[in-house]
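Q: How would the structure tokens look for this protein?
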Amino acid sequence: MNTKKILVRTATVPSSLAVFCYEQISRLSADYNVHIITSSGPELEMLIKIPGVSVHIVEMQRHISPFKDLKSVFQMYRLLKKIKPDIVHSVTPKAGLVSMLAAKIAGVKYRVHTFTGLIWPTSTGIKRTILKNVDRLLCLCATNIVPESFSVKKAMEEGKITSKPLTVLGFGNLRGIDINYFSPHAHFDTPKIPNIKSCTFVFVGRIVSDKGVNELIAAFDRLTKKYDDVSLLLVGPEEQSLDPLSQETLKTISQNKDIISIGAATDVRPYLAASKALILPSYREGLPNAVIEAGAMELPCIVSDIPSCKELIQDGYNGIVTRVRSSDDLYNAMRQIRSNINEAKQMGINARQNVINKYDKEKVYAALIDFYSQT
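A: Here is the predicted structure in token form.
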């Protein structure tokens, strides 16, 4: 007789689970009957191939769409009534709202949502109010709320999002990191990168405004006017329809031969290995995986002065912290890395040790299993 508990993991789009939780879900299937519910998308094939895991499609919109959202809730409710899960665990905002509301109506006993980040702290006016109330509704429907980081937890407490307990698992992070895979000594294919210089910086993430890309491009363009040995790799997808870059930024990217657009990459390690430092000047983050991955590769990180980044980077120890939206600070930080290579190397060594101590995937997985065992 099968006595495994039934666990449902949900995300708005399949890439959130396929990219960030693939191995974790595969391991969970040994102890749970695992079901995945997400929208359709190319990464769905990866999830379907996980042995012992059932995959279901409920279309969910990333943006606010009241009619379509209600339709998603109804479809999710019908599916949950059929699956009869013991636990529903959601990540990403829209899947959280849809899943937690549907699971509550369906009578699921344990309803867990992980907040990987918050949108409302950087919003204003009526939009901020709406987004906060959406998170409040989500928390009202959930039984267990898991901020991905201590900074997210603090923001939720200060924003009075919920009076329920907020539980950070371990030191935070959704999946942890394979410290052998992300290692300066790992073996991987090295693609040919045109125009790469001796002092290369790398950005990994969505190429959008709220990642600080406008300020980064302005700072780096200024840097190339002073030094001829620097280059910048942009690794990640463009999302011009959601959060477009300025026209000036787009023009600079196209005209500056030292800015190299890589696009989305399934393996970012070659680009990290080719660089002296990672730059993430984001306006908001949950707990940025790019910074953790770069740290494991012994790269110092130049990050913005936001709580989640400061949770990972101690200024001068394993990276440099810059003011949010400050092109001048980014310029000076890149100059510091270029002019003090030995100092940068030591910060990189410190960064890897910090990742090993806190974000090794085995430690993160153990914290998750312990959490599930208490439900």
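The mean pLDDT is 96.

The two ends are 21 Å apart (CA to CA).

Upvote if useful.
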